[in-house]
Description:
Blueprint: E1 8-12, E2 17-20, E3 29-32, H1 39-53, E4 57-61, H2 77-85, E5 100-104, E6 111-112, H3 117-129, H4 133-148, H5 156-168, H6 170-177, H7 182-197, E7 217-218, E8 221-222, E9 224-228, H8 236-253, E10 265-269, H9 273-276, H10 281-293, E11 299-305, H11 313-316, E12 321-324, H12 332-342, H13 353-359, E13 364-368, E14 380-384, H14 396-404, H15 421-508
Helix pairs in contact: 3-4, 3-8, 4-7, 5-7, 5-15, 12-13
Amino acid sequence: MYDNSRRAFIAINDEKEVCLIPKMANRHGLITGATGTGKTVTLQTLSESFSDMGVPVFAADMKGDLSGVAKIGGNKESVNKRVDGYNLKDKGFEYKAFPVRFWDVFGEQGHPVRTTVSSMGPLLLERLLNLNETQGAILTMAFKIADDNDLLLIDLKDLQKMLQFIGDNRKDFTTKYGNISPVSIGAIQRGLMRIESEGADRFFGEPNLEITDFIQTEEGKGVINILAADKLMNSPRVYTTFLLWLLDDLYETLPEVGDLDKPKLVFFFDEAHLLFNDMPRSLLEKVEQIVRLIRSKGVGIYFCTQNPADIPESILGQLGNRVQHALRAYTPNDQKAVRVAANTFRANPKFNTEDAITQLNTGEALVSFLDEKGAPQMVERANILPPQGQIGPITLGERDQALRSSLLYGVYEDLIDRESAYEILSHKENLLEEERRLAAEERERVRLQKEAEKAAREEDRNRRAAARKKKEEQGIFGDLLDQVGRSAKRQIGNELGRTITRGIFGGLFGKR
C-alpha cells in the first residue's frame, strides 16, 4: 500500500483509498480551507508522501508545527484512533521520522538563506519596496548603471550607496539614461530603510543560496526543507517576495527535463493569498509564466490558502490536484466563496459538493487528484491520512541537534562581505574628497600668495605715495635743502678722506 513509486496514499473513506499519482504531482496543486480545519496536517502528510517517493520538498513553517516531521509520530491519541480505525498498519503505515533540513532567513532556527541584490533583480525588489511605476523605472536604471560600470550589488548597503552616487551625480547620467528624479531616489532609499528595519537586510549577502541544495535525498528519501517563517511572517511582503525569488531561481536554474515519473522537487507556497494582494500586472504575468512552465523542469507548486478565490483564475486553472477542507458560510460573501470552491471540482453524484464543503469535520476534506491521463478525478469526501511523523513542533534542542548534524552546517553560517559597489564607490568618494581637499588647499595657497603680493604692492604704493606727498609738502625749498645736504655730505666725505690719507702717508715718512 505504501509503495509510493506508483501512487501516494493520501486520504481514505469507507469505500476507497484516494491516491496521488507521482507522475502527475508536478501538475501543481491547491490546499484550501478555513483556519483550524487541518491544512497544516495535510501539508505534513503530503510532504511525507513525497519524501517517501524520493522527492525533496520545500515548505514554509508558520508556527513551527511542521518541524515535527523530523521525529517519530504517534504522540496524539486522535491519530492513533484513526490509524486503528482504518487498519492503516496493515496497509503499511508506520510511525517514523523523515530527513529534514531547517532554513531561516534570520539564521536563528536554521541555515541562513541569502541572495544578492543583483540576483533578486529590480522587478522583485520593486514589489518588495512597494514602488510606483516611475520609482520602479529609476530602480531599474540603477541596476543598469551598476552593470555598465561593473559594480556588484550584493547587499542592501551596495544598493543604498549606488542610489546615493546616482543622486549626487545625476547630471552626469541624464544624457545616457534619462531624467533622474531626486524625489524618486529618496522614495527608494526610504523603502530600503523600511525593509532593513524589518530584517530584510539579513536576506541579502553572501554566500548566496545554491538552489540545488534544496534538491537532495538521504537513503532514498527526499529531504524535507523547512523554512522557519514565524518571524518572517511579521513582514508579509518580505515573505512573499522571498518565496517568489525562490520560484524564479528554480525556474532560471533548473534544466528542461520534460515529463518525469516523479517531480524533482515539490514547492509548498503557504499563505498564498498574501502573494497576490496588490500584485502589479507585470509581476503577476511573471508568476503565471513560472507556474505554467516550471513543471517541465520537474517542479510541482502547491499553493495553500483559505479559499480558491484567493488565487487568480489564470493560475487556478493550472492547479490540477486539489484538497479542500471546510469553509464556513455565515454571510452571503461566504456562501459565494463556497459556491466558487465547489465549482472547481469535478462533481460526484453521491453527494452535493457545495453542501459537503460546509459540513466537513477537522481533518476531513474533499479530494480530487489527476488520473494517469491528466484528467481530474471525481471529487471524494475522505479523511486525510495522519502524519507518520510527530504532530506539533519539536523542541529547540532537537532542532539545534538536527541543524548541527546537517551536511550543510558551516556552509552558509558565516557571512562573507567582499568588495562590491559600496566599497568601490566609498573608495572613489574618498579619492574625490582627497582631490577636493588638495584642490582647496592649493586654492587657499594661491589666494594667500595673491593677498601677500597685493599687500606688498599696496605697501609699495603707499611708500611711494608718502614720498610724493613729502616732496610736495617741501616744494622747491625742500629740493634745495636736499641738494645742499647731498653736496655737504660729499664735501665732508672728501675732506675726511684727505685727512685720513695725509695721516697715513705722514706717518710713513716721519712727519706728523
